[in-house]
Every structure is written in structure tokens, then in C-alpha cells.
Amino acid sequence: MSDAAPYAALSPEVVLAAVDAAGSWSDGRLLTLNSYENRVFQVGLEDGGFVVAKFYRPGRWTDAAIAEEHDFALELAAAELPMVAPLIFDGQTLLRHAGYRYALYPRRGGRAPSLESADQLEWLGRLLARMHAVGARDRFQARGTLDRATMIEAPMRATLGSALLPAHLFDPYRFAASRVDAAVADRIDAVGPVQRIRLHGDCHPGNVLWTDAGPHFVDLDDARTGPAVQDLWMLAGDDAMMKALLEGYGQFRDFDPTELALIPVLRAMRQVHYAGWIAERWHDPAFPAAFPFAAEARWWEQHIADLHEIADDL
Fold it and tell me: For a tag site, which of 10, 71, 167, 256 has the least CB within 10 Å?
């Protein structure tokens, strides 16, 4: 497989054969699910059921880091948390076929949560508190930390090294992103030390599926070490929503209110990371198709303006 097109050889036949190789016999039904970083498919089985097959992007995570993702999911599920965990085959969750690493998951449906509902937010808060209690039991060794190096410095290098950034905007982007980095560093220093635990890491509404029985969480692909508030702020669009989340959270775990001051930092880092992620992945044919705006100078001009505004606000 090529770095420029890492999934070029991942044909429907290869996906179905990978499912068969694990011992879950497919019946030919195949549906591509929404995912850019990895490739994810719903596959029908001969017994009438379904599995979800997740093929990991080559080179992104080490085997050890993927093992930590899977172990964390299984640990959460064992603690009776509604986390969709990988299936185990002969003691293994990380499988290999045709040069790809993959995992199979049970299919779990659901709809987006109603974040305007205080009851649902409190419910999510209780579950996140329980998840964080499990996350605080141990530490990640291979998955890294939610920090400036990962969320600002590396994405900056990716953007500055990409032909996607117009040449005349190279220096303006570098200046704007450096201002954000300095402002983030100052805010982190002002907040001071906070507890860092194993997190979901990307707990936005798309990774929470709601059913009549309640919510369940999916996709620990961005699980990292960081402050608890990282798993809260993307679900809270305003202070009232955060209050409802914390009302539920406090029923199972203490929350350090100092962490609320990190929300602007986490939002700023995510903004820088997003542009760097697109730039780094632009060689993947899925990215120009999904993010055509990133090929336009005006988008980068607006991104630079947004970074200056973020730096001013921090």
C-alpha cells in the first residue's frame, strides 16, 4: 500500500475476506460508514446479524497504542458502562488481513442525543463521571497526551509543510498560529496543574448514540490522557448545558472547577489541529472530496483571521 493512497487496495472483496478471516462469515452486504481517519464498514453476516469493521489508517497508531484503545474500551464495558468495545477472536482484538490492521465491533444503532434536554445532559454527565473514574485507575503509555505538542506544534508543522497552504499565506499563518500557541501556553500556566486521566478524547455528539434504553459511546480512536473537562466541553454549547452536565457528573465523581478555565485552550488547540489534520491528510483522495474548501486561499485567510481572534480572546 502507498502512503499517498493508504486505502487504495481496500476493495469490498478485501473487506469481506477480512471479516471471513476472523470467523464471522459475511453474506456480501456491505455499507461504508462515515469516517475519514480510518475506514469503517457495516458488514452483513450469514446468520442475519451485522458487524462493524474498522480498518486502521496505516502508520497513525502503533500496535501498542491500538491495544490501549481496545483495552480501555473493554475495561469500560466490564465496568457496565455503555461503551461499544471490539470483539475478541482467539484472545485478540487487533486483527490483520492483506496488510491492513482492523477490528470488528458489534453493530449498535441510535440517534444523536438531544442536548437541549437537561435530563439527557445529566444522564451523560453521570456516565462520563463513571467513565473518568475508570480512566483514573491506570495510565496510557502509548497513546500520548492532549497537549500543545500534539494539538498545536505538530499540526503547525503539517500545515507549513503542505502545498495546500498558499505560499503568500505562509508567514501570516505561522505568525497567527504562533500567537495562539503562546496564548495557550500562558493560559495553561495561569490555570496551574490539574489531574490528567485516560479520556474518550473526542466526545462530540456524533460519538454518542441514543436509544430508548439510553446512550452509548463509540469510537475511542482519539483516546488520550488529559483533563476531564475535555470530554465535557464538546457536549456543552453554553453555560446552562455545562451546568446540567456537571449536575449529573457530580453525583458520581468530584469535578475540579479550575478545569473550566481550560475550555478556551482546548477549543483553540482543536482549531489549529483541524487545519493541520486536513493538510496532513490531503494526499488521501477522500479528503479533497470531503473538504474542497481547504483548497481555496480564502478559507486559509479566514482561518488565519480566526486564529488571531482566538489569540486575542485567550
Answer: 167
